[in-house]
Design brief:
The complex is a heterodimer of chains A (about 160) and B (about 220). Chain A is of the alpha+beta class. Chain A is built from two helices and ten strands. Chain B starts with 8 loop residues before the first helix and ends in a 7-residue tail after the last helix. The chains are: A alpha+beta (about 160), B alpha+beta (about 220).
Chain lengths: ~160, ~220
């Protein structure tokens, strides 16, 4: 029987993996960053919805690894490797990290979006995963959907329409 | 979720009363401003996951007009006044006396006025919510300058969850919906107030109201 494509949903501070023909999606990224790691030839991908830059911000046990840039990407990478992805060919695409509200007197928390993006890029660099495309910053929310078959990410915004990276 | 460990039904009832008083005053302010009778629902206080917070506001993908402010002072937290777009358009039409205003087909010079009207509406309502809360608890609470955004629920509300997200994967949401009387609106087109106290603020609010939280 022919298998119909499903859409795997990733919540806030959550991660999951997907294999073609299924798609993977996360909705309403604001200051959060959506990170996709994928092995194009194996049509295998993983997505994390990262909320905070660093797990040192956490004051709780046990740690939700998907919440923090420094723990989420490592964890996602390992899950992908266990699922048959090959280290040498894994690539990344990222989107999000917007600044949704403009405040005067911006504290560290106010610029959480840019900080998340910096932390994600740093972590990818340490793992030597090349960033093929990104759509970050600005002040619009994003909904992203990744197709592991084509390696393309659809990005929907409210004010700036749709795009594909 | 350690900060939730000592929260009992009695505490949740107190938070309901907090929502009742705050939103009650805000509903009165809105009623005066619009010259219409405004109803509010009995406040609900829920302990929910972050994804469920988005569901309360119509889903992470749902586009809303939202006024956000930080509460500063003795019991810091975040507050949102969230309006579905049809409701926001209705209020904008009434406040700007521009009966043809819609978000989907908007002129550049109209949007500025519309946004400023909406922002002012948010200022008045959240200000009255917060000042009644401050009177009720005898805590000094100061609103930051509110910021307005028309965007996806997920994108805007996450901002109010950042403090909580450092200690928990759950939030206590004090939610009150506002309706025009007789409008019989479905849940999805109601205005909502969300009050999200920071984790350390709960015991401050409780002890200000004379209720012990066993530490």
């Amino acid at each position: 029987m022919h298998k119909t494509a499903e859409i795997i949903k990733v919540g806030i501070a959550d991660m999951n993996i997907v294999k073609a023909p299924d798609l993977i999606r996360t909705t309403g990224l604001g200051s959060c960053v959506g990170v996709v790691l994928y092995d194009q030839a194996k049509e295998l991908a993983g997505m994390a919805h990262v909320m905070l830059p660093d797990s040192s911000l956490s004051r709780t046990e046990p740690l939700n690894k998907a919440k923090f840039a420094n723990t989420a990407i490592k964890e996602l990478f390992e899950i992908l490797m266990k699922s048959g992805a090959r280290q040498a060919v894994i690539k990344a695409k990222i989107a999000g990290g917007a600044q949704m509200f403009q405040f005067s007197g911006s504290s560290d928390m106010m610029r959480i979006g840019p900080r998340n993006v910096e932390a994600v890029l740093q972590e990818l660099k340490e793992l030597r995963i090349p960033v093929i495309a990104h759509d970050v910053g600005g002040n619009s929310g994003r909904t992203i959907e990744f197709d592991p078959k084509t390696g393309l990410m659809q990005i929907r915004t409210v004010n700036k329409g749709n795009s594909e990276i | 979720m350690t900060f939730l460990k000592n929260i009992s039904d009695i505490h949740l009832d107190i938070l309901k009363e907090v929502g009742n008083i705050g939103a009650g005053h805000a509903a009165t302010a809105l009623s005066t401003l619009m010259n219409k009778k405004i109803d509010m629902t009995v406040p609900s206080v829920r302990v929910v996951s972050f994804d469920e917070v988005m569901e309360l506001a119509g889903g992470a993908d749902n586009v809303v007009a939202s006024v956000f402010l930080r509460i500063e002072g003795e019991a810091p937290g975040s507050m949102f006044f969230i309006l579905p777009l049809p409701q926001a358009e209705k209020y904008i039409r009434q406040l700007t006396k521009n009966q043809s205003f819609t978000f989907s087909d908007v002129q550049d010079n109209d949007i500025e006025l519309a946004m400023s009207a909406l922002q002012e509406l948010g200022n008045i309502l959240s200000g009255s919510y917060l000042s009644s809360l401050s009177d009720f608890t005898h805590l000094s609470l100061y609103p930051s300058v509110p910021a307005l955004s028309v965007d996806m629920v997920g994108a805007v509300i996450t901002f109010g969850l950042l403090e909580l997200s450092q200690v928990s994967d759950y939030a206590i949401v004090i939610d009150t919906a506002l309706d025009e009387e007789d409008a019989k609106l479905p849940e999805s087109v109601r205005g909502h107030f969300f009050l999200l106290p920071d984790p350390d603020s709960f015991h401050i609010i409780f002890s200000a109201l004379g209720v012990k939280v066993d530490a």
